[in-house]
Amino acid sequence: ERANSDAPVASTAQKIQYILAINLKEGRNLVIRDRSGTSDPYVKFRIDEKTMYKSKVVHKNLNPTWNESFSFPVRDLEHIVFVKVYDKDHRSNDFMGSSAIFLSKLELDKTTEMVLRLEDPNSLELDMGVIIIDACLSARDGPTKRNKWMLKRRGSFGKVKPLSRFLYIKRSQVWGGVYTVILVEGQDMADVGQGDVYVRFRLGEQKFRSKNLCIKANPQWREAFDFNQFEGTEAMQVEVWSKRGRKCEECWGMMDVDLSRLPVNQQQLYTQALDPGKGRLVFLVTLSPCTGVSVSDLSSPSSEEHGKWKRMLEQYSLKNSLKNFKDIGLVQIKVIKATDIASADLNGKSDPFCVLELGNSRLQTHAIHKTLNPEWNKVFTFPVKDVHDALELTVYSDAGDKPPEFLGKVAIPLLRIQNGQPVTRFLMKENLGGLSKGTISLDMVLLYNPVRAGIRSFGPKETKFTEEMPKFSKKVLAQNIYRVRKISSAILYTLQYIKSCFQWESTQRSIIAFLIFVLTVWQLELFMLPLFLLVLIIWNYFQVTPGSASYSADLENMSVAEEEDEEEKESEKRGLMEKIHMVQEIVLTVQNILDEVASVAERIKNTFNWSVPFLSYLACLVLFVATTALYWIPLRYIILIWGVNKFTKKLLRPYAIDNNEILDFLKRAPSDIQKVRGQFSIQREQINKKKKKN
Question: How many structural domains are present in the chain?
Answer without folding.
Answer: 4
